[in-house]
Amino acid sequence: MKTKIGISAGAYAAFTFLIALFGGYVPLTLAVGFVLIFEGNDWLRATVVKAMALLLCFSILNIFLNAIPDLFEIINDAAGIFKGSVPTGPLGNIIAFLKDIISVLKNVLFLLLALFALSMKTIKIGFIDKFVEKHLTMGQ
Hints:
single chain, 5 helices, mainly alpha, elongated
């Protein structure tokens, strides 16, 4: 099935996952917005929204990981008022390790989703797919 811009829905969806991986939020929002406004293909609509929701989930996860050292810094600053400190040990290394794992997982997942999208297939990601299904009005 072709989109209004003349490429297949699978190619557009794959392109959208690659934009999510390499382009960031502005180009992804434009690509998703175009589909939501102009395209009627339910699979394509669900897939591009899935790309956006997945990128948001990875960003939120990153925010929480970045907040952990900040929280310990606040506690240390408060303890420093009373000449104390809270030992953090290898916390920074653990957070960096987790961020590296998440980054690799994100890259692999978006590349796999792009490859699957070329043949108009997907990888089921439970909570993301449920979110998209719940909040995206399909065929109405």
